[in-house]
């Protein structure tokens, strides 16, 4: 699962107020790929993301994988250098959560991620 | 009639490992899903030059997502069958292991992309294991568009005592309403078993606030017939938009074959199928409707002709 997707997820388990952003439990297995930068897509997606959530999850993951994950500016710069766009591309599309847990910020409900696929299934009594 | 998989129990039991592989490698299936997805894309009316973020509900093994990808969009697929998702995941992995081609996606211009059959290095899709009947777990106003291909009818069946189809449909549509960006559209192709199911589905969609209706392609062919629920936020322009969404037909007897069912009057349309009762002519509005519409326009400060005894009167000749 990409960090782009993570940015859009919101837990809707019973008892959540905001359900957003989901935490990523420490010790998660990540993979960092290097796919060709698509400038257009990056710009379009930057428009959609919750920027502060993106920065904070990136900073969390950098605690464990500093060398592979670029640091992001604390607020979205007005003009974007090519290099900055490449960094955004890396963070949004190339950093993948492979195995681990997503955590609902309100209820602590954990959502397992296996082989890159988060399991967001809720039981009827959790809704 | 072949038996319906929806009657056999939970979707994740039907779409098991064996079925998922079979599904994904059947060239007939690939062809059919491609055709439906392309038609759904047409009904979505996205700007072909702007990449969009699209939700694919009941994405299965990724056949529909593949087409979104070819059109340069970013997509997120949800499915309740882990086995289908695993097939989708493996396909994506194989794809990204192929060395990326010389020209990167960046330099592609959209004209060339169409002809390019070969897959590019990175996939633009992502997957999630989820049951749409429990409500979509995303932030509000996230997606530019939503498609769902051959999956929605599953919500009409209950697989356990505590699964209530009405409730699940309602949850699905109200969450869809929330996660879709204002101005966005959703096109959901589904296979209703009965006319009542089509009514239930489209009425639930209107109940949560959506505008739109069901477009039926090839209504007279038992095999080719397809239902597309087309949803938007724009209640005012729906009438006009729907006129433009002409159903596909096989050519002969165009008039008879066309079928357009609007949300709320679906029942009437559905019955037509059996009885072939004369349909209401398109574009004929009742007087009440026109007077109401005019009043609304006036409220908005528009210049509208006064209501008279001639309002909504039929004209003797069509022109
Ligand atoms: C006929 S397949 C279509 C898959 C894909 N859209 C395509 O065009 O190839 C129907 C899919 O709907 C999924 N499905 C059924 N019920 C579902 C539910 N409640 N939530 C999410 N997906 C569901 C099934 O698991 C299956 O993968």
TrEMBL record, chain A:
UniProt keyword Methyltransferase, yes or no: yes
GO MF annotation list: methyltransferase activity; protein heterodimerization activity
Record keywords, A-Z: Methyltransferase, Transferase
InterPro entries noted in UniProt: Trm112, Trm112-like
Signal peptide span: none
Record bears the keyword Aminoacyl-tRNA synthetase: no
The protein's name: Multifunctional methyltransferase subunit TRM112-like protein
TrEMBL record, chain B:
Biased composition (Polar residues): 90-99, 246-269
Bias-annotated ranges (Acidic residues): 105-121
Keywords: Cytoplasm, Methyltransferase, Nucleus, S-adenosyl-L-methionine, Transferase
Pfam family, one: Methyltransf_11
Residues that span the membrane, as ranges: none
Residues in 18S rRNA (guanine(1575)-N(7))-methyltransferase Bud23 C-terminal domain copies: 240-316
Span list, region Disordered: 90-131, 235-319
Subcellular location: Cytoplasm; Nucleus
Ranges of residues in domain Methyltransferase type: 55-187
One GO BP annotation of this record: rRNA (guanine-N7)-methylation
GO molecular function: rRNA (guanine) methyltransferase activity
Composition-biased stretches (Basic residues): 272-284, 292-302
Domain of life of the source: Eukaryota
GO cellular component, one term: nucleolus
Family: Belongs to the class I-like SAM-binding methyltransferase superfamily. BUD23/WBSCR22 family.
Classification via PANTHER family: 18S RRNA (GUANINE-N(7))-METHYLTRANSFERASE-RELATED, METHYLTRANSFERASE-RELATED
Name of protein: Probable 18S rRNA (Guanine-N(7))-methyltransferase
Organism, as annotated: Seminavis robusta
